[in-house]
């Protein structure tokens, strides 16, 4: 069994508690307008458009497939910017053993791993096997998920998942669909499921320059989560957002005063453990 890995960051202190290894999986069922790593959304279709843009000839086409030479690559990401398909030619199809080898190298310096994406739950069987092996190393297992997949339907995976960091991008389903391409019914079902099982570490909401939607999401999410997990409120930032996203989400960032007002609103509605970034 192999899974498509977009990248591995050996040490991260922004992906859950303590120092953690972050593993980004390729492919996502959402297509968020403000996505900052849209190259994780689709699989490469080997159209070849990025190959000639590589300044060090690390890309080639063999038998109709794009091949990435990791040793030559200087990680300039020119190929990603050139891709019209929200994909990357730099995907590593790794086995559980190969990922575990990487984790073992960092083992003494990390508290656990966090799997992200794309949407990590696009690869549930792989995650289940990976998490079992990670626990054998004495490390914790966290998922960073957009909540698209119904977690209740993956009992084996949830049994080996220590905590989840869940995005609730909007409480209003129509607005959620406008932002991501999908309604939020399963996201909210997952939120309740995780709280019930004490598996929610943190809920995250990106605050756009849309006061009505921000208020609606912050009030309703806070009422649900109360003191059961962290609630992270994140300022939308337009840097790196693709053109179609900018048309809907705009170029402006909410002020610190507005961020603080949202933080106070979350607390007024019961979310005690808030963070703002
Ligand atoms: S990131 Fe690597 S493969 Fe892509 S253009 Fe730069 S050097 Fe070439
Ligand atoms: S990464 Fe994008 S541009 Fe490059 S071959 Fe794949 S689909 Fe085409």
Main traits of this protein?
alpha/beta, TIM Barrel, two-stranded antiparallel sheet, globular
Strand content: 15-25%
**Mean pLDDT rating:** 96
**Helix/sheet category:** alpha/beta
CATH architectural label of the largest domain: Alpha-Beta Barrel
CATH topology of the largest domain, what is it called?
Answer: TIM Barrel
Largest sheet, spatial ordering of strands = 5-1-2-6-7-8-9-10-11
Along the chain, the helix and strand elements come as EEEEHEHEHEHEHHEHEHHE
Gyration radius (Cα, Å) is: 19 Å
Our measurement of the CA-to-CA distance between the termini, rounded to an integer number of angstroms, reads 38 Å
Please write the CATH class name of the largest domain.
Alpha Beta
Helix content: 25-40%
| Tertiary shape | globular
Structure explained in plain terms:
The chain has 277 residues and is α/β, with parallel strands linked by helices. It folds into 2 domains: 2-40 and 92-276, TIM Barrel; 44-90, Alpha-Beta Plaits (2-Layer Sandwich). The protein has 9 helices and 11 strands. The strands form 2 sheets. The chain has a 9-stranded mixed β-sheet with strand order 5-1-2-6-7-8-9-10-11. A two-stranded antiparallel sheet has the order 3-4. Helix 2 (96-106) packs parallel to helix 3 (124-136). The two termini are 38 Å apart. Bound molecules: iron/sulfur cluster (2 copies). Residues 44-50, 66, 79, 82-83, 85, 87-89 line the site of one iron/sulfur cluster.
